[in-house]
Amino acid sequence: MGGAGYAVGSSTALAAARRRSMRFRAQMSVPFAVRRCEAEVASRSSIELDHKVREVASHRRDRAKRSRAPRTTFTTIRQDGAASSPWPESRCAEYCMKWLAWMLAPLMALGWVVSASATVRIHSDPGGRIDQYLDRYNQIRLSGQHVIVDGTCNSACTLLLGSVPRDKICFTEQASLGFHAAWQFDDAGRPVASPSWTRVLWRNYPRAIRTWITRHGGLTPRMIFLRGGALTALYPRCTAAASYR
After folding, report:
1. Among 3.30.360, 3.90.226, 1.10.760, 1.20.1250, what is the CATH number of 100-243?
2. Angle, nearest 10°, between helix axes 195-204 and 130-143?
3. Three-class SS of residue 40?
4. Which three-class secondary structure state does DSSP give residue 44?
5. Whose CA, among 8, 116, 151, 236, lies 20 to 30 Å from 83?
6. Are strands 146-154 and 119-125 parallel, antiparallel or unpaired?
């Protein structure tokens, strides 16, 4: 009985030992697998990092080569030897014409014509807001443009006389200047006299013009006209060359 009992005990112990051995191998294999996985991940990361480093270095070399290369200019030489722009001439001309039309639209609406030589020609201007005319004439004065009055120039249009230098203005035989007191709309929409804006008109007229206006009754709601010999006595007549600018 003892031997048998021992035999049974020995078999159980062997099985237990085998189970412990299997658990041990399993426990030992897990860290090994983890370490192996970590090694593989690290290897892949190293390869990817090396690839990124190589790619960045390649880009830097390319940029360095481009920076050392001679720069391409924007001027080309045609077969006839003349320099030309890479932009098509038609495209450049189109942009220039659009810009010029946008800049001159307000002047065209007022009956002003601007010639190719930057000369403003007034032929039929009934006037308008005093502040807007002062701004426009200030721009003309700063640009150094000449002004040809070749028709009627009434009301706020006459601010030209005090805003643009005298040597930049000339008048044709058809020129006529119309002066009157300023007015504005009241709350009911009716036109009423405006003493404040009339004073603005008066301050902007040259002394010779103010003298002429005073001799003819001053600035009143009734318009008075300066034309013909009386006008050319104060301002130069346009020459043939000026008229065809």
Report:
1. 3.90.226
2. 20
3. helix
4. helix
5. 116
6. parallel
